[in-house]
Amino acid sequence: MNILISEIEKKENQKDILNFSEIIEEFNKEKPVNAEIEIKVLNTTILLTGRIHAEVNLTCDMCLKDFTKVLDFDVKEAYTRYNLNNGCNAEYEVKSNNFTEDLNGSNEIDITDFIYQCVILHIPNKIVCDINCKGDEKLSEYLNTKKTDPRLEIFKNIKIEKDK
Ligand SMILES: [Zn+2]
């Protein structure tokens, strides 16, 4: 889903509220990601603020069980319409701690991609289904089945005779 910045500029106060509800297959094939995002144009900056609700299907790193993690969080991001590296703005980029995305003069913002990136950032590096997840049982089972590749079974029966 793309929004046109020029369309937002025409609105009152140069802002619009977008109700987003789309299936993003990488996260969940059945349940859409829902979001309410306010888009506001301030000169060369486009501010996106709102809330995202996503139910993401993940696999636990500990027990390898599939589970659904509900993510519900606020977002506040800014896009800039023109290249920050142009002339006097170069310094701004270095100093800024904002995750300002550069549109390079484009009139469009891909909202689906924006929301996708926001959700990705909220998925923890270590994915655990539950803080109490012990994981051992299934994981060791998994590792054991991995180890015993049937094609390698034959080697178990080979006896290496030394110094005969
Ligand atoms: Zn687990």
List keywords for this structure.
about 160 residues; alpha+beta; elongated
Explain what the structure shows.
With 164 residues, the protein is of the alpha+beta class. It has one domain (2-156). The chain contains five helices and seven strands; from the N terminus they run βαββββαββααα. Strands 2-3-4-5-6 form a five-stranded mixed sheet. The protein has a two-stranded antiparallel sheet with strand order 1-7. The longest helix is centred in the C-terminal third of the chain and has 12 residues, at 136-147. Mean pLDDT is 83; it is low at 89-97. Bound molecules: zinc ion (ZN). Zinc ion binds at residues 60, 62-63, 65, 128-130, 133, 135.
Distance between the termini: 74 Å
Helix-and-strand structural type = alpha+beta
Low-confidence stretches: 89-97
The amount of beta strand, in percent, is 25-35%
Total number of helical segments? 5
**Which molecules other than protein and nucleic acid are bound?**
zinc ion
Q: What is the global morphology?
A: elongated
SSE topology string: EHEEEEHEEHHH
Radius of gyration: 25 Å
**How can the largest sheet be summarized?**
5 strands, mixed
* Residues in helix, %: 10-25%
> What is the β-strand count?
7
Q: Strands across the major sheet, in which order?
A: 2-3-4-5-6
Overall mean pLDDT: 83
Integer tally of domains: 1
